[in-house]
C-alpha cells in the first residue's frame, strides 16, 4: 500500500559545495540518497514529492550537516494485499515475482495443484494442462501477499495464487 509520509533526513556536505547553488545541491543529494531506498520500518521510499524545510547547517569535521524535512511516497506491503507482479524466475520450489521494488516468493504449495513444473522447458516454467496456462519468466501474475519479513534494509514477501481471480493475468 502506498502512503504519503513526512520524513526527516540529515544530509552531510563537503565544504566545496558551499556555493550560491547550495540549496539545489541539497535537493539533488536528498533525492539521490533516499529515493529507491528501503527502511524496514517505513517501507520503500518511491519518490520525494516536496522539500518542506532545510534546517540551518551544523558545522562538523570535514563539512556540514543539514536537517531536511520532506514529503515522500512510500510503499509498504501488507498481509492480504493483492498486487500485480512480473515473474523473475521459476524453479521446482516455486516462483519469484517482482512487485515493484519488492521480491515475492510463491511456494508450489501456494500455487494451484493443476500447475506442474516443467524442468525441460527453456526457460523452466509451470504449466497447467487443464487451462493451457504457463507461468514463466516475464509472465504477469496477480498474487495475494500472505506474509512479510522485514529486515533493516529490505522487505521480503510470500504470496499465493491459489485463490479465486489470482494467477496469470
Class of the largest domain, according to the CATH hierarchy? Answer: Mainly Beta
Helix content: under 10%
Any idea what the CATH architecture of the largest domain is?
Beta Barrel
**How many strands appear in the DSSP assignment?**
14
The computed structural class is mainly beta
Radius of gyration: 22 Å
Poorly predicted ranges: none
Number of helices: 1
* Major beta-sheet overview: 5 strands, antiparallel
Strand and helix order: EHEEEEEEEEEEEEE
Mean pLDDT: 94
Q: Could you tell me the strand content as a percent range?
A: over 45%
> Distance between termini?
20 Å
Shape: elongated
CATH homologous superfamily descriptor of the largest domain: Nucleic acid-binding proteins
What is the domain total for the residues? 2
CATH T-level fold name of the largest domain: OB fold (Dihydrolipoamide Acetyltransferase, E2P)
Pfam families: S1 (PF00575), SHS2_Rpb7-N (PF03876)
Subcellular location: Nucleus
Protein name: DNA-directed RNA polymerase II subunit rpb7
Keywords: DNA-directed RNA polymerase, Nucleus, Transcription
